[in-house]
Predict the 3D structure of the following.
Amino acid sequence: MTASDIYWPYVAFAMGAAAAIPFVCFALARRWSWIALVVGLACLAVVIVNGAAPIRGALDPNYIGYGYGFLHADKGLSVTFIAGSVVLFSALSSWIAIRNRPGPLMLIVAATSAFHLVNAGFPLMDGLLADPKSVEIQFGEYLTVPYTVAIPAIFAVMVLPFLLGLPWALQRTVETQ
């Protein structure tokens, strides 16, 4: 079996499951608010969507490359570094958000929220203004989601939670216990 033979959506879901284990443990403590839950789940969605790319970039010589919003990388370790950074900071932010504790760690959630808001929101807005039919979600060679589903999905999962989460995280950064 070669890296090209691996069914990569399974890897993405496995990465999401691995990131969800600490998330669920923190969520069971019931210290979260609804906005903490929304931001944490949105960060987990980013982990799942991008979860296979860091591994695939390192292992699969036939990988077509990585694209997520403004981020693009050709084959190889550049994919591993860029996608791995997105996955790492999104997982970390999901755990910090669901813990819902005030303090400087919330700056990581604020920075991640700002990044995802710009990285997903601006290309969506640009696509809507230029040609709405060009907006799509592509999961490698396995699935392409058309604009009729992609536009509301990107807005609901990749823009709105971070639009709400950015001011919340900044407020939680300056609050004291």
About this structure: The two ends are 53 Å apart (CA to CA).
